[in-house]
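Summary for the steering committee. The consortium agreed at its last meeting that each partner would contribute one worked example illustrating the joint modelling workflow. Our contribution is presented below. We chose a case with several input lines so that the handling of multiple components could be demonstrated. No manual editing was applied between input and output; the record is shown as generated.
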Amino acid sequence: MSRDALHAEFRRLHRAPEPDVVRPLLPAARLGPEREAVLARAAGLLAEIRAAESDGWVNRFLNRYRLNSSEGRALLGLAEAFLRVPDRETADRLIRDKLGEGDWGAEGASESLLVNSATWGLVVTRALVREEGGALKRLIARAGEPFVRTAVGAAMRLMAQLFVMGRSIDEALKRADAADYRDFTASFDMLGEAARTRADADRYAVAYAQALEAVGTGGNPRGHSISVKLSALHPRYETAHAATVVPYLVERVGALAERGAALGVPVTIDAEEQDRLMLSLQIIEGIAQRPALRGWDGLGMAIQAYGKRARPLVDWADMLGRETGRRVQVRLVKGAYWDSEIKRTQEAGLSGYPLFTRKAATDVAYLACARAMLAADHIHPAFASHNALTVATIAEWAGASRDFEFQRLHGMGEGLYERMVREEGFRCRLYAPVGGHRDLLAYLVRRLLENGANSSFVHQLADTSVSQAELLADPVERIEAVGGSAHPAIKLPKDIFPGRVNSSGLDLQDGAELARLTTAVGRALSQPHRAAPIVGGMAMAGSAQPVRNPARPDLVVGEALTASPADVSRALALAEAASAGWSATPVATRAACLERLADRLEADRDGLIALLQAEAGKTLADALADVREAVDFCRYYAVEARRLFEPQLLPGPTGEANSLRLEGRGVFATIAPWNFPLAIFLGQTVAALVAGNAVVAKPAPQTPLVAARAVAHAHAAGVPADVLHLLPGGGAVGAMLVADRRVAGVAFTGSTGTARAIARSLLADDGRPLVPLIAETGGLNAMIVDSTALPEQVVADVITSAFRSAGQRCSALRLLLVQREVAGPILEMLEGAMDMLMVGDPADPATDVGPVIDAAAQARLNAYLAGPAGRIRHQLHVPASGWFVPPTLIELDRLEDLTEEWFGPILHVATWEAQELEQLVERINASGYGLTMGLHSRIAATAATVERLARVGNLYVNRAMIGAVVGAQPFGGEGLSGTGPKAGGPHYLPRFAVERAVSIDTTSSGGNASLLSIAD
Ligand SMILES: Cc1cc2nc3c(=O)[nH]c(=O)nc-3n(C[C@H](O)[C@H](O)[C@H](O)COP(=O)(O)OP(=O)(O)OC[C@H]3O[C@@H](n4cnc5c(N)ncnc54)[C@H](O)[C@@H]3O)c2cc1C
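What follows is the complete predicted structure of the assembly.
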C-alpha cells in the first residue's frame, strides 16, 4: 500500500465499529495444523512458570493481593504515594489510612496498626526478598509509629529496588551483567512522568543522552538498547502544537538516535496514547529520513495491538524501512493505557473507541500483526508479552528462525522465558526501568494495573480458580463466538447516560479534524451576524451597536440591538398570554422540542463554535465544551421533565383520589452571563420552558449573537414564538424585567451583587406575589494540595482549573493552598507549566488562553494586578493588542487576603501546615462563598474530612475542578455562591414549577364502590 492509502486506512479504522476491524484479522490470527504444538508448548510454559523459583515479583504480588481487594488497592495506594511524602505527619496519616483497611494476610487481621503493619511488612518483605524473619520484621517488632514509618519506607524502597533495574544507568548496567540477567539483553527506560515543563524535558533529554553514553561505552557488546518516550521530551506533545513540536522532536530525538548509531546503541520510541499516534509517526518518519541515519537498523518503534490501527501500522513500518533502507525494529505490545483510553474517549464524547474493548480482540490483533511482522522484509520484530499462549504461538510460527526477539518487563515473565532462552536459543530483551524511587512509583502502578486487571494473563495465572483451558483459550474462537462485537459493558460514548444521547464531541487531537474545523469557522464568520430583540417571533428594530472580537477588537463580528422598554413590555404581554396554553401542552411535546433543539445545535456545531470564538474569545476546546453542555442540558431536562411532570397519584385512605402535579409558574425571566453564552443562556431557558413557563430571555450584553442564534434554533425546533422571546441588552433591560409584576420567576447567573439587586427588586412591597429566584453566582474557589499528591497531576489540574477559559468560569480555581513542605517544588513546576501556555487569539488552535471578555474586564483585572494584592510570583506575557490579561500567580501571606472574586487568569497561592487541615477548611468556609473546592490527596480520610467540613456545592478530588458534566456533576453553589438548586441535577426543574395537589372524595357521589367491591 502507498503512504496515502495507509493513512486512509488509519482514518477508516480509527473509530470504526469493532467487528469491522477485528473480523478481517481473524484469518491471520487463526491457528492451523500447528495448533497442537502451540497448545503443548503453552501448557509446558505454564508448568514452568508455576514451578519456577522466580516467576517475577509482580506475579507474587498479584497472587497475594488481588487488585480488586481492599488490601491490593491499599498497597497500591501506599506504594504510589509513600516515598514522595516528605513530612512525618502526613506519612503517618497515609500509613494509617492505607493499612487501616483490609485483612492483612495469613496472620489474620488485627485491630492494631502495628500488627497489621508488621504483617504487611513481613508479607511484602517475604515476597520481595524471599526470606523470612529479616531485619525489617525485627524492626517492626520493636515498633512505635516512627518504626512503622521507617519500616514501611524500607519496604517501599525494597520494592522499588526490585522493580527498577538500577537507580542510575551505571547501576542498571552493572546489574544487567549479574548472573540472573546474563541471558537477557536490556532496553533501558529512564523513568519519569510526561514532562510538564521545559526544564523537565531538558532533564529527561540529558538522562537519555547519558544513558546512551553509558550503554555505548566499550562498544555495547551485550547489545542493550534504550527506550524513549516522546512525551518526556516536550511538554506540549499535542496535535495543536504539531507545527513546532514535530520539528523540535525530530531534531531532539534524531540527535539522540545519531549518537546511538555512532555508539551502536539502538533507540526505540515507545508507543503512548492513541491520540498521539499520528504525531509520533510524523516524528519517527522525520528521524528515519535523516541522512546520517539512513540504513541504520537501530531505530525502533512500538505498535500497540489494542489499537484499531495496529495492523496497517505494521505495513507502515515496513514501508518506512523499505524507503529508508533499513529494518525498523518494531516492538509489538498489547498496550499499556487501556483503561485511561476508554475513559478519555467517553469524556470526549467521540464516535467510537480507538482501541478494542475485548481482551481477546487485542490478542487476535496481536497475532495478526505478529504474523505480518514475521513476514515483513524491513522489520526486525520484537514481541513483548508475558502471555504463555501468545508467546507459544509466535515461537511455533517462527519455526527454526531466531531472527527476532521476545521482550519482557523487568520483574515479570522470568519463568516464562527462562527455558526458551537458555535451551531453545530464543532471544529475549528486558524492558528495564532506571531511576530513583520517586520516579518509579507511577510506572509501577501502571504496570500493576495493566497486569493485575481481571482479564490479564498474569492476573489469571495467579488465580488458581482459572483453569488451564481458560488460560489457553483460543482468542480467535472467543471473538468468533461473539461475532467480533464490542464488549457490552463498554458502551459507546454516546450511550453512557441512561435515557438520553450524550453530546457528541470532536477529536481535537486529529489533525484533519482541526484543519476542517478551522476552515469551517472561517467560513461561518464571513457571513454577517445580527442580534435583534425577538418578540413574538419578529425581529424588532432599533439602533445597532457593533459586537467586537475580544482577541482583535478592531474586528467587528456583527451587530446587536438593545431591547426597548416597548419591546420588553410587549414580550411580557405576549408571554403572559401564552403561558397557560404552553403549560397545558403535554410535557412530552415540550420535551420533544428540547430534543429537537439539541439535534439542531449539534448540526450547527461548527457555526456555533465560530461565533463563540469570535464573540466570546473562546478557545476551540472551550467553545466545543459550551456547545456540548448546551446539548446535554436540552436532552437532560427533556428526560427529567418527562419523569417529573407526569401527574403522580398519591396514597391515602380509601374513598379518595389524591394526585400531585407540577405546572409552569407563568412567565420566567432568564438572565444569562457571557462566560457560557450558549450553555448557561440555553440551560436556564430550556429548563424554564420545559417546566411549562413562557420565557423572556436576556443574554449578556457582550454575547447577544450566540444567544440570537440559539433562540432561532429553539423556534425552529418547535418552541412557539409567543412562548420564547429574546431581549438583548444591558442591566437596564434586566432591571425592567425583574421589576415587572408579570414575571413569576427569575433564573439568573452572574455576580453576587447583581443577584442581590434582583432579589431586592423581587421583594418590592407592591403587593407582588413572592417570586422565586434561582441564582448562580461566583466563588472564591480553593484547591487544597497535601504532600501525598502527585505533583505532575496537581500541576496539570491547576493549569486547567485556573487558566482554561482565561479563568472566566465561576468554577475556576482562584486560591491554591499547598502544604508547606511540598510548596517549593510544586510551584516551581507550576511556573514552568505556565510558561508553556500559549496566550493569544483563539482562532489559532494552538492557543490555550484567550482574551478576557471586554475592555472593562481587562482594565479592572489589570488594575488589580498593578495594585498591592500580594507578591506576583509569576506572570506571562500577552499580545499587545486585544483584551488580554496576563496569566499570573500571586503569592499571599494568608488565604484571607483574597477577599474578592477576580474573574480572569489570576491564581493566588498560599501554604498550610499538615496538622491544620480542619482549620484550613473552616477558614475557606469563612469567606461565605461555597461554589467549588478541589482537593489533591492520596489519603481517603483526608478526602472524607474535607467532604464533611467543606461548605461547597461541588467538591472535586484528585481532578480538575472545572467542566462539570450535566447529569453527572450537577453544578451550583451555596452561601454567597447561589441559591441552588443545581443546574444539570435532579432537583432543578421543580424550582421552575408550581406544585398542585388535588384530592377528590370519591364516596361523595354515592358510597365507596371500590371498597365494597373487594372480594372476600
Ligand atoms: C518490553 C516491553 C515494552 C513495552 N513497551 C510499551 C509501549 O511502548 N507502549 C505501551 O503501551 N505498552 C508497552 N508495554 C506494556 C505492554 O503493553 C503490556 O505489558 C502488555 O499489554 C501486557 O500484555 P501481555 O501479553 O503480557 O498480557 P495479556 O494479559 O495477554 O494482555 C493484557 C493486555 O491486554 C489488553 N487488554 C486488557 N483488557 C482489554 C480489553 N477489555 N479490551 C482490549 N484490550 C484489553 C491491554 O493491552 C492489556 O495490557 C511494553 C511491555 C514490554 C514487555
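The chain has 38 helices and 30 strands. Residues 270-271, 302, 304, 306, 331, 333-338, 356-359, 361-362, 384-387, 390, 407-409, 431, 450, 453, 455-458, 487 surround flavin-adenine dinucleotide (CB under 6 Å).
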